């Protein structure tokens, strides 16, 4: 090769070598990042039917809002919806011991447990009820209607008797619940219904610790003996009794420690919300154990869970399809019980 040709080709070879080197470096960098670099965060995909809220500090969406009551029409149907909401908010005024319609319930209001007339996120929210009922419930082993679900609450949580399905009151309550669920596709849930996810403790929930939590966090509203605070006109409770003769009975859903723990984590003390909780996970478990260790009315439920293998891990009444004690089923630890069931049932 002549010197002139070398001078022409050399710069081109240098550029080619530089490009090849840069490409090789880029490949090496990509490989290193792929194996050792940080994993890119993917956008969360919400499964509205099963997901609880995100971890504290990373809440990425609010609970689904209920329809505005100002949009209830000024029609006969609208008046029925308003009456249903009034019955939820002030149940005892109409159906309590001094009720103007009937004397069926214990003096508590549905709203005492279903906060903001059943619209607060993860506080026994009603929004998905119309979309998910009728449905098969493991507790009864039957398909249950909205009316039957309301009746269950009156008999368990309000420790009373249900109004008949054909009554004006039942029709109004169902109308209100149906109105709340407008626009939600059949069979779907929305974010804010059900209970928040709460990891199991590695130990049993501690009633003694829970008593101290109750004294510092709860008794200001619910009273030192869990007796609650009646309204001034004695037509219900501003803050409901948590045990004793006027509280929910031992057949109520909140008598299950996991349900009560998840509820208080998301909604208690009063003013707390699922995205701004005021209790630690441990406090929620322990105070739930304390509250549900206190005396309350008993309701015999011999026909509940006809298939005992479908009982939830925290169902406090035997018999069971396993060998764990009634005490462990009530207070935990729950993970060993769940691990003993290859496909633990999600009972309602």
From TrEMBL:
<feature type="transmembrane region" description="Helical">
    <location>
        <begin position="12"/>
        <end position="36"/>
    </location>
</feature>
<dbReference type="InterPro" id="IPR009056">
    <property type="entry name" value="Cyt_c-like_dom"/>
</dbReference>
<keyword id="KW-1133">Transmembrane helix</keyword>
<keyword id="KW-0479">Metal-binding</keyword>
<dbReference type="Pfam" id="PF21342">
    <property type="entry name" value="SoxA-TsdA_cyt-c"/>
</dbReference>
<dbReference type="Pfam" id="PF00034">
    <property type="entry name" value="Cytochrom_C"/>
</dbReference>
<dbReference type="InterPro" id="IPR051459">
    <property type="entry name" value="Cytochrome_c-type_DH"/>
</dbReference>
<dbReference type="InterPro" id="IPR036909">
    <property type="entry name" value="Cyt_c-like_dom_sf"/>
</dbReference>
<feature type="region of interest" description="Disordered">
    <location>
        <begin position="297"/>
        <end position="348"/>
    </location>
</feature>
<dbReference type="GO" id="GO:0020037">
    <property type="term" value="F:heme binding"/>
</dbReference>
<keyword id="KW-0812">Transmembrane</keyword>
<feature type="region of interest" description="Disordered">
    <location>
        <begin position="52"/>
        <end position="78"/>
    </location>
</feature>
<keyword id="KW-0349">Heme</keyword>
<keyword id="KW-0472">Membrane</keyword>
<protein>
    <submittedName>
        <fullName>Cytochrome C</fullName>
    </submittedName>
</protein>
<dbReference type="GO" id="GO:0009055">
    <property type="term" value="F:electron transfer activity"/>
</dbReference>
<feature type="compositionally biased region" description="Basic and acidic residues">
    <location>
        <begin position="304"/>
        <end position="314"/>
    </location>
</feature>
<dbReference type="GO" id="GO:0046872">
    <property type="term" value="F:metal ion binding"/>
</dbReference>
<feature type="domain" description="Cytochrome c">
    <location>
        <begin position="205"/>
        <end position="295"/>
    </location>
</feature>
<keyword id="KW-0408">Iron</keyword>
